Automatic annotation (TrEMBL):
It comes from Priapulus caudatus (Priapulid worm). Transmembrane segments: none annotated. Coiled coil: none annotated. It catalyses: Hydrolysis of proteins and small molecule substrates at -Asn-|-Xaa- bonds. It is an enzyme of class 3 (hydrolase). Keywords: Hydrolase, Protease, Signal, Thiol protease. This is legumain.
Amino acid sequence: MERGANMVSTGHLLVLCMLLSVALAAITNSFVRENVIEESQVGVHWALIVAGSNGYYNYRHQADICHAYQILHSNGIPDERIVVMMYDDIAYSEENPTQGIIVNHINGSDVYRGVPKDYTQEDVTPENFLKILQGDEDGMKGIGSGKVIKSGPNDDVFVNFADHGAPGIVAFPSGELTASALNDAIQSMHDARKYKKMVFYVEACESGSMFSNLLPTNISVYATTAANGEESSYACYYDDFRDTYLGDVYSVMWMEDSDVADLSKETLTQQYQTVKQKTNTSHVMRFGDESMGTLPLIKFEGDGKSAIAKPLQEQKTVPLDAIPSPDVKLSILSKRWTKAPTEADRHKYHALIKQELKLREYIDTRMRQVVDFATKSTEQADRIMSVRHQLRDHDCYEPVMHHFSTTCFPLHKVEYALRQLYTLVNLCEENIPPSMTIEAIDVACLH
C-alpha cells in the first residue's frame, strides 16, 4: 500500500510539473509577443524640408531650410529619414562672397555643411513634393536620391517649407502647389495610415490660406504659418557683406528658439506662442489639431528621445531689418545702388530698379484690365481692387489662377505677380464665373 501511494504521488507531481511548464511557456510567449508589439508601435521620425525658390535674391529660403536641417539632424533624425528639396544655386553662386557657405544669421555659422542634396535644380517641383510626402517610391525612381517619406501608422512626420506664396498657393522654381492639392495629399496619407502625428511649419506670404477652412481638426495634423491668408511674410537680417537677406522672421524665430530650447520639455504650443510674440511683422497662425500642442518638440524636430541640440553658435542680437517679402528685390537693389563703388555700377543698379518698377506698373495695369472686363462695372472693379476677401471657392480660383500664370505672367518667375492674385480671389468670392475671368485674362494679356 505504501509503495502504491508513493507511485500515485510521483505521478501527480509529474503531471503538475508538466502543467506548470506549459503555463510558463504560455506566459513567456505572451510576454514576448507583447514586447514585440510594443516595440513595433514605437515608430520613427521623418522630416521633409523644402526651399521652393531659386536665385541669389532669394538666398534666405535656402538658408532657412539648411538651418532647419541642422536642428533636425543634431537632434537625432538620421539623414536616411530627412528628405531635402532645394534648388542649390546659392552656396556656389558667383554672387556669394563665401563660396560653399550659407548662413542664416549675421556672422552666423555655416548651415550648408552636411545638408543632403536629395532633390535639386529641376527636380524641385510640386509634383515631386507630393510624391515624396506620400511615400511614392515608384514615382521617384531615377529622380534625385529617390528618398521618400516611408512613414507608417506609428511614425511622426515634420514638414518645413520656405518660399514665396499667395492666396491658396506656394511657389516652386517651376510651378505652384495649391492648397487643395496639399490638403488632398494630407487626407490621403491619413486614410492610408501613413503617419501617427504630422506637423507643418510653412514660411510664405499669405501662407495661412494653405490650411484655412481646409485642414480638418480630427486627423492628427498640426500646422503653423508665417502669416494669415491676406498678408505678407517678412524677410530679415540684411547682410551688407553678402548683399542679401539671410532669413525670414518667422523661420529664424522658431529655429533660434529650437537652437537653445530643451526640446524634450518645450511643447509645440509653447514654441508657437514664443514665435507669435516675436514675429510682430505678420500674424503667425495655427491650424488643424491644436490638442497636439501639448506634445514636446522633440517628437517632430528630433527623434523623440535625444538630448537637446547645442546652439550652432552663440547668436548675438542684431537688428532684424525686417521687410515685406514682396519688397525684397527692390530693397536689395536700392542698397546696392547706395554703396556702388563706381558711376557705372550706380547706373546699372538704377536701371535695374527702373526695370523692376516698370514691370510692376505693367502687371498692375494688366490686372486692372482683367477686373474691368470681368465685372463690366467700375464700382465693382474698384471694390475688387481695394478689398481682400478670404479664399473659400478653390474650385473657381485655381483654374483662373493657373490660366493667369500661363497666359500673363509665370507666377514662379515673376514674384510681384503673386501679389495681384488677391483680385482673382475677389472675383471668385463675388461670384464672377471663372469662364468670364478666363476670357478677361485672354483679352488683357493676349490681345
